[in-house]
Amino acid sequence: MQMETIVVELTNPKAINLLLVLEELHIIKLRPDRDPSEQSLSAKYRGILTRKGGKKLKKHVDQMRKEWDNT
């Protein structure tokens, strides 16, 4: 049986109690919703480095990876 994740919008405040009962019976698993104010790391740091600085950083990281692979 394949598990599937869905998003449910509650239209009645009493519905949460029904969902909690289903969770207690191990029929469903409730997960906390992500805070919409949280940004992904890529979005958070987008535009921080200049193009030149980004290329320099990439070159440095690539060099470090080669050195690591050679050990």
What descriptive keywords fit this protein?
71 residues, mainly alpha, 48% helix, elongated
Short description:
With 71 residues, the protein is mainly alpha-helical. It has 3 helices and no strands. The model has no long low-confidence stretch (mean pLDDT 87).
Describe the structure in your own words.
With 71 residues, the chain is an all-alpha fold. It is 48% helix and 0% strand.
Annotate the secondary structure layout.
Layout: H1 15-24, H2 41-45, H3 51-69
**Number of DSSP helical runs:** 3
- Structure summary, number of beta strands: 0
Helix and strand element order:
HHH
Anisotropy-based shape: elongated
Largest sheet: none
Query: Percent range for helical residues?
Result: 40-55%
* Low-pLDDT residue intervals, each spanning 5 or more residues: none
The average pLDDT is 87
Percent of sequence in beta strands: under 5%
The secondary-structure class comes to mainly alpha
Radius of gyration: 23 Å
> Separation of termini?
45 Å
